[in-house]
Automatic annotation (TrEMBL), chain B:
<keyword id="KW-0970">Cilium biogenesis/degradation</keyword>
<dbReference type="InterPro" id="IPR017975">
    <property type="entry name" value="Tubulin_CS"/>
</dbReference>
<dbReference type="GO" id="GO:0030030">
    <property type="term" value="P:cell projection organization"/>
</dbReference>
<keyword id="KW-0539">Nucleus</keyword>
<protein>
    <recommendedName>
        <fullName>Tubulin delta chain</fullName>
    </recommendedName>
</protein>
<dbReference type="InterPro" id="IPR036525">
    <property type="entry name" value="Tubulin/FtsZ_GTPase_sf"/>
</dbReference>
<feature type="domain" description="Tubulin/FtsZ GTPase">
    <location>
        <begin position="40"/>
        <end position="240"/>
    </location>
</feature>
<keyword id="KW-0547">Nucleotide-binding</keyword>
<dbReference type="GO" id="GO:0005874">
    <property type="term" value="C:microtubule"/>
</dbReference>
<keyword id="KW-0342">GTP-binding</keyword>
<dbReference type="InterPro" id="IPR000217">
    <property type="entry name" value="Tubulin"/>
</dbReference>
<comment type="function">
    <text>Acts as a positive regulator of hedgehog signaling and regulates ciliary function.</text>
</comment>
<dbReference type="GO" id="GO:0005200">
    <property type="term" value="F:structural constituent of cytoskeleton"/>
</dbReference>
<comment type="similarity">
    <text>Belongs to the tubulin family.</text>
</comment>
<dbReference type="InterPro" id="IPR008280">
    <property type="entry name" value="Tub_FtsZ_C"/>
</dbReference>
<dbReference type="GO" id="GO:0007017">
    <property type="term" value="P:microtubule-based process"/>
</dbReference>
<dbReference type="GO" id="GO:0005634">
    <property type="term" value="C:nucleus"/>
</dbReference>
Amino acid sequence: MTQSVVVQGDTSLCSAVGQCGNQVGCRFWDLALREHAHVNKTGVYDDALSSFFRNVDSRKSDGGACGFGGRIQHLKARAVLVDMEEGVVNEILQGPLSEVFDSTQLLTDVSGSGNNWAVGHMSYGSVYREQIVDKLRKAAEHCDCLQCFFLIHSMGGGTGSGLGTRVLSLLEEEFPEVCRIVTSVYPSPEDDVITSPYNSVLAMKELSEHADCVIPVENQSLVDIVNKIKHMSDGGKPGLTIRKDSSIISGQGGLRGAEKPFDAMNNIVANLLLNITSSARFEGSLNMDLNEIAMNLVPFPRLHYLVPSLTPLYTLADVSVPTRRLDQMFSDAFSKDHQLLRANPKHSLYLACALMVRGNVQVSDLRRNIERLRPSLPFVSWNQEGWKTGLCSVPPVGHSHSLLALANNTCVKSTFLDLKERFTKLYRKKAHLHHYLHVEGMEQSCFSEAITSLSSLIEEYHHLDATKGKLIPDAPRLSIAR
Amino acid sequence: MSVVTVQLGQCGNQVGHELFDVVCGDAHDGQRRSYCSVSRERFFHQTERGDLVARAVLIDMEPKVIKHSMNKAANSGRWTYGDDAHFSQKQGSGNNWANGFCVHGPRHEAALEELVRRQVERCDRLSGLMAMMSVAGGTGSGVGTYVTQCLRDTFPKSFIVNQLTWPYGTGEVIVQNYNSVLTLAHLYGLSDAILVHENDTVHGICARLLNLKHISFGDVNRVIAHQLGAVLQPALTTDSHGLYSRNPLGELASALVCHPEYKLLSMSTVPQMPSASIAYSTFSWPGPLRHLRQMLVSNSKMEEGIDWQVRLPAASERSRSLTGGGRGGGRGGGGAAAAAIFNRSLANLLILRGKDVYSAETGGFEDPALFTSWLSPRDAFSLWKSPVPFNKYEKSATLVSNSQALLRPLDDMVRKAWNMFASRAYIHQYVKFGISEEDFLDSFTSLEQVISSYSQLS
């Protein structure tokens, strides 16, 4: 299931499609409410809230939209939720977040996509095309200025992957000028869905062609982070208890009560989204808007896969223990423990890197750390100082400061190579192919085109990699006749 | 005569706010009456109730910064921005010069012109317009350039000065060099004078002179505002005949920009020290003036670590300059490193403020060896004075220079942009909004011309 979040000028629209997408989305809305409640003590519906929520007074006859400055009546998420099974969406509607969505924002069916990309993309894609466009339009209309769409989905299944990428191309068709940022959960090698390589590769082609930015996240990395935190908090070392609401896996303080199994992992992704949008929602001395992310991090249209890392993972509960030095936070952002993708950026080539800092951090801290870390990070020759930085004054709940790093790094190549290998293993034997080819609109060429697209993407990264370590001389300058 | 300030983008609005704060605080009621009233008239419109409203237009493509600046001003209790003097949209320019220049600028042209017109009409007499912006982002740079173009069309006879903040060399925005190149190339044909502040330099001042451990953008902006204030507050000039000059921007431009190919101006102020130390320091003119002169000669950006080895050439060596006579500062590399190379000036403006200005000895600044041979030192050197201490400093001296000081930073900027352009990285983002590869090439060509001109000063 993916959630699309539409981001308007200062607002975003979230689309969640599929089971994973909707579960993550649910965590996102819960944590967003928590964050805003923490910051907004006056109960006034302000700019920051408006970026993600509408304010509705259901007593009003005209549909009730309330403008800025008034009291908060009912907050409604700027979201569209799509799933071809009812389970997750129904659960959301029966839970404490039900108030945040209304029925016009939902699209469900009953039978699911059977982990089949073709069913999601072709079948449901055609059947529900009108309705999806309609719901998106309605959500967009509520926005004064739509800035971007967030799409959340997983790659390995059928709905998130297939219908999700269909939604993506609809977004491009209907709203070509609005930025599309996709958070994609990539399957681990041990994924229990056998056809996940097919689904992922088929989805990759769509992502490469229709998304402005993709933030890939691997389940295994999320699992590792969860384990690390649990280990830390169960370790029982005196003085090292973690503040419960501060850990990025925690939903404490949100509306949701007891935690569900995937909540911890989904909270991480939700935190990622909160941090990306923080500078668009709150003030700071150096703002970083969402459209600036695409502008600065995407040097060539198809190379738009960004490796995320989040720090800190938690704050210690004991306030007398000195907070970890600020500089440690910057170092952590470049350590593999904090990445949401298993890859090795330090051994590959950075094309660009963005640092979004939240909290009480000044420009001198930022500069000092960039100076310090630069020598160990290999940057492509034409972007030796390729840093995009943002300073937002409001930290996340439970922390005094935080950092999100998004790196456009050729190390994603290895993730894609992995995917290609798993795909090829299945495809060579034509395993399960007939399930796909049975679907109306699906042909063998879809597969060959998808794998070709992936191969050429890998090739582009490879080409850049080859320049690593080589001393590239300055390009000869124009000479002026005197 | 009044100056209307146009604040563009996050940087322009943040720095602009600090500037108004400085000049308002400086010209308080304890000061001499005429200084105070000239300063107020220059920067503020006074309402019937006596409230000071800044003669400023605030422009940004997203609302947060303007809102913050306006609130801060209102909370100061001493001055405010006009309620009807700002323009913002919901969505920024995405750090994209093309988005600012080709899309936002034209789209909002009428509204922006109206805002400026309104401020101009409130002035009894307009001395000129100052546009404040950064070159690294999308709004300040792109919309700022477009607005400057509109101002030039609308006020063809007025002086238009651009105050530009150049970003840190190690990056704030990845495409900053593209945005900077496009901005500078276009402004060169539009602006009367381009006043440049480099974040790296100002950051150094904060760290080494002001002893700040944790430097914020607020600190950086306040230093810039202090330097600008030192230039723009009332002063007695040679043309003003014993009264405070009514034409600061015009006199600045005519003193320093004698040729349209040479418009880049840098500035230094001495002394700069932690505000807590000011009360305990004694000031005399000879020391600071000596330092300021050597800072100019050796191209040192601050009053610490000045290279005293750099000497002015003897008459026989007159042709050697910052680049060793070769073209392209910094490209040969070796030229800038040799100790005997000095920073050649086209023109200099020295502004003295405070006690005993009339006894300050400034002959050292008229040395012909400092300048190119085109102008006599009498024409190349200008001196302004004000007996009123500025911004709590009992004595302060500011030097505004048209010299080779910005040659190296400019060359670095062009070199990095060119390397990126050679691989065509990010170009698709600009093409999307209407700037072509041809446009880039034109801008590169213009700037190489400027670099060449400054390199070959003799």
